[in-house]
């Protein structure tokens, strides 16, 4: 394991070079969820900011979060506070009913945007990634019960326009069953994230049985936190894994740690992929509380991965 000091000393300037060498052996990329703390801007402005961050860290492939691609119109008519606070920099306190109204309005705005946005918008987005030398491997959409069938179909159209070969999703088994026919229709694999609901090998087996189009987006940090054995699962199920999400968590439901400071077998897993030559790309997902900017912390994560594969 690296100590905090050793981790911080990994050469940021050399990270893209190390990253490129690692990618020759095991394809390495970045999940754009890692940049969630960047200033929030909508639509193409948001995409441009994410691309800028990806270029800064030397990433050539991504798992693109839908939150970084979608640009619903801001809602109008925000309810005025019933109690306390005021606009103009002060805290606004909404009643539970008002807050529910705001959430419903936001969700309706997002649905309208998805249904009204043509694939050509995503084709243009893909062009921006291509111009930056970045490929979109996976498009992440976390399906929940609020999705209509038309909305699900729209996300598949958008993923195709992006050139993504996989839609990844942190979702429930019931929603996975709803999504399955769309995966068949659009001939796009759906990779289910192992979350609390799909945290065991048995649960993942049950999810894979729903559709031949289903794969696993295997988060080794989550699997470790669920007290499962990531190395064994990869060895036994590598044919069902579309890609790995790399982060470090502690066991017994523990939190995220700097790479090398948790219980997740990061180095053994990366070396396993290299030695067995499993065709599984890995994507760094920065989630711990870092002291640097998102770009700086993602660079450190990539340098750790490169070192493990060296």
What is the topological layout?
Elements: H1 4-9, H2 15-25, E1 28-31, H3 43-57, E2 61-65, H4 96-116, H5 119-131, E3 135-140, H6 149-162, E4 166-169, H7 173-186, E5 189-193, H8 201-208, E6 214-219, H9 220-225, H10 230-237, E7 241-246, E8 248-249, E9 256-257, H11 266-276, E10 282-284, H12 294-309
Parallel strand pairs: 1-2, 1-10, 2-3, 3-4, 4-5, 5-6, 6-7, 7-10
Antiparallel strand pairs: 8-9
Helix pairs in contact: 2-12, 3-12, 5-6, 6-7
Question: Helices and strands, in N-to-C order?
Answer: HHEHEHHEHEHEHEHHEEEHEH
Give the DSSP E fraction (strand runs of 2 or more residues).
Answer: 5-15%
Number of separate domains: 1
In the CATH scheme, what's the topology name? TIM Barrel
Helix content: 40-55%
Structural class: alpha/beta
Side-by-side strand order of the widest sheet: 1-2-3-4-5-6-7-10
The CATH superfamily is Divalent-metal-dependent TIM barrel enzymes
Which architecture does the CATH hierarchy give at level 2?
Answer: Alpha-Beta Barrel
Q: Nearest-angstrom radius of gyration?
A: 20 Å
Q: How many strands in all?
A: 10
Weakly predicted, low-confidence segments: 1-23, 81-87
The general outline is: globular
Number of helices: 12
